[in-house]
Structures are given as structure tokens and as C-alpha cells.
Please model this.
Amino acid sequence: MRAVFLPVANNDLEQAKDRDPQTGVTGSTVYASAVLKALLEFGSYDRYYVMVGPEQGCLATADGRRRVNLISTDNLPRFSHSDEVIFFAAQPALHILSPWRRSLGVMAAPLSGIIHSMHTRLFFMLLMRLLLTGDLHSYDALICSSRAGKIVVEKGLARIALQFKQMYGSSAEFQPQLPVIPLGVRVSDFQFRNRDALRANCGFTNDAVVFLYLGRFSAMDKADLAPMIIAFCRNVAPRCPAARLVLAGDDTAHKLTPSLQGLAAGLNSADRILIRANVSREHKSELLAAADVFVSPSDNIQETFGITLIEAMAAGLPVLASDWDGYKDIVVHGRTGFLIPTYMYPMDSSKPTSLASLYPLAPFLAAKTVVDVESWTQYALDLALHPDLRRSMGAEARLQAEKTYDWSVVIRGYEELWSELSARAGVAKSSPLSVGNFSFDEMTFESIFDHYPTAYLGGQALQASPGAAALLQKPEVVAHLLQPARVFENRVFAAVLSAIEILKTAAADELVSRIVREQALPAARVHLHLARMMKFGLISLVDDCRREDLTNSELAPIRGVAAAQ
Model:
């Protein structure tokens, strides 16, 4: 018998949100509530043992009820030597699986979990504990949903090993596998045959070009939507009157809908921007069917993948996303969409960011992560003004979703991994390490997340954007610019703008040095405000510091895909 043991199987989260719109939704919880269904539909294992079970709706089919065994500590299964047993968690929760492996007496059974957010101290501390106690082996795996996420784990493990060697003078072996397997969606769920009718239901005319954002409303731990709204209102809508920007998703935590609506109204574009908070699953599907382009300007370190991106690709939409975190893996630049360059000033080395403070610092890091709005504008216009480009990229995105992100493909990847891990089982094992008080707390942003931005700011040439001074006079813009509270100051923004208007064009380092001298401000504080102004499009890179437009030769293969459909 081949069996998979799961510590918990979540209920259908989107179904729960349909019942109660105030139910919070995150990508990791959406994944956790879908993976058991996917295992039952596409997996080949004989039994799935679940300690904490889902509602019966998750096991609606007779085959599902037959293959899932809901168990408790009073009726634990017994496995023979010939059984192939896999422990699997829909989180990076190997510390939960390890005691079950011991208690069931199947020490040769591989453990496997999957990463999601990794910006908390807890993730690395629990991983470190498992490594040091010898509870992880070479036949265990922490599945990484993206290469960017894998690099974070590798750098974290390297830091743990380095500190261990510094403290004890010996090396520790860290053996678990780190395969890269993406998250999945059921691509057939996003094949819409009545797009015209669904567009009409959403209130869009035939000539409308709909840009859709779908995700949490959170400027602190998802994406700051204000810069995108400003860029759309100032630069896209005037050149493409048919363009519409729709912001939809979970707004249960921060209640940002009124301030986002106020920003659009303050920019005289309330009729061009539609905000739909806490949408149902049905309306989410309607919006994906009605949209022409999907947008996601992620700017935070808590995300390692992006389920909404692969949902949009499955719906046949080109994706306009930030060149950041796991998004780098998902969007094939110039084929399935465009990646927007991201920039950041190096952290102040005189004030290292410890692991303990990384989580509360995450909103601060996001606030000064620049998603280049000038590039966003140019790519958005490319897509808005060229329907053939939208169609060809959307067709390529759909093909990529079927090839890489459909649950049938992802589950096959899991099972191939589990077979490899089972073959390794018993060959090599770890041993507990004899250590004293090993207090690990040296995980800095620079040491594990420094590969997230496209580039770091320093010598690039900068200039004031047209209309920057006028934007700084709009209270709706300033209200968003000053977030998070007590971090930014209007007087520093004014000093930066004044200096760059005098210089016309200046290297970033030169501009910072001038303001430091004139205003007697710490360089780190000037960096912070300058990056924030770049994020909002008040200051921009000069053209030769930004991407080159795609040539016709680069677009030709994409158009060829569309012609073949």
C-alpha cells in the first residue's frame, strides 16, 4: 500500500469567504485548502490519512471518501515494512511531521513540506531545531515553490552552519532536499466560453481595456497599490481613454477601500478605477474572464510565489508584475507578460537587521522598495494600445499554465519527488548534534533576501518627474506617501524634490550627498525618502538607466503563437 499522511486538511477557504465575506484569504491558505482535492483528483496513492479532516464537501466523490481516512490518536494506522508511507504538510511544518514519524514507528518514511512566507524568526528557528536534533535526513524535503524561495532557504541554512562552526569549531551537515515545485491551480476552472456576457455583467463595454489586480489590499505585506493608481491616472488613462483599472480582493485586515477610492477621486479618475473588496468566488471568475491584462506590483518579502498570477495565466491573460521574489519564475518576460524592474537602496550596514526584527521591519522594507512606475506605464501602454500583443501573450500564458502550473503537473511532480525520497530512505541518516545553548539570531535582509530586487540604487542618474511638485500638493497622494506612519516626513520629501529640481539630472549618490550636507540629515534617512519618492513616480531614472523597448524581432515569436491558435 502507498499512503500519504497529512496532519491537517483545510476546508475550502474560498467557499468559506462566499459564506462570510469577512473571512481573510492568503495564498498559502488557498493552497492548503486545495491540495487535498488535487491529490485525490490527480494522485495515485492508495490512502490519504488525515489527522484533522475537512468538511465532507472536500470528499464529495465516492473515490474521495474511500481513499481518505480521518484518524485520531485513538485509531492510528499500522504500516507494514512493504508499505510506502509519505508524510506531507501543506506548510513548511516539518517540525509537526517529525513526531508523527517517530510515534508511528516508520523512521524510513520521508517528510515533506512546502515553503510559503519565510520572513519570520519562527520559520528559521524551527528549521534549525530539526537540523540540530537530527530529525531531518537526506530523504526528507522542504519543497520550494520558486527559485527565489529556495535561495532564501539555502542562505538561511548557510548562515546557521556558519554560526554553528564559529561557536563549536565543527561543521554541521544539513541534508534535507530542496526541490523546486510550483504551487498549482486547476487550469480548466479558468476556461471561460462566454467572455462577452461576463464582461457585460461586470459593466465593461466591448472597447474597454481592463487591467485587473486581484489580491489582498495591504500596502504593508502584499503590494502598495497607490503608485500604480497614480501611474494609471496620470499616464495610461489619458493616452488610452478606454482603459479601466479594477482592484479586487481581500480587504478584511486593513480596510483600504475608502482611501484607495479617495485617491482615485483626487486624481479625477473615479470613473476609470473600480474597487471591489471581498469578492466572491463567482465574481472573481467573472473579473478574470472580463479582464484584458493582469497586474500585480508585489513589493514585500513575505511572498515567495503568487497564486493569483497563475490563475490569471490560466484565464489567458498577459501578466504585468514586479521583477521580485517568486514572480521572477512565473512571468516569462516578453512572452507571457512583462516584469517591472525593482530597486532598493542597500540596508544601512551600521544598523544590521537581525532575524528577531526582520518581521516587524518587513513593512518598512516594502515602503522603500521601488517598483519602477515609468516601466510599468510603458508596458501597460504597450498592452493597452496593441490588442494583438495582449492576445498573443495571453495565449502563451495559458499554454504555460497548462504546461507548468496545472494541478495534474504539480501532483505528478510531488509523486516523482516522493518516489525519489523513498528510494533514498535508510541509505543515509542524520545524528543529533551535541551542542550547548545555540541561540541563532543573525539572519539579516542582506544575507537572505538580497536577490529579490532587480538592482540596488547608487550611481544611477535621476530626474524629477513632470508634475511631481503638483502631486506633492494633493492631500490624497501625501496620505499614502507618508505610510507607514511616523517613518516619513513632508519636509524631507520637499528637500529631496528641491535639490533634484536645481540639479535637473543627478546621480543618486550625488543627490543624497548634497541633501545630507544641506539638511544635516543621515544618509540612510535620505535614501529612505528618495526611494519612497521613486516608488510613487515623483523621481525617476533617466531613460538610459531603464529597460529598452522590445524589438519587433522579439515580439515576432509571440505573435506567431497567437496565429497558431
The two ends are 44 Å apart (CA to CA). The chain has 23 helices and 18 strands.
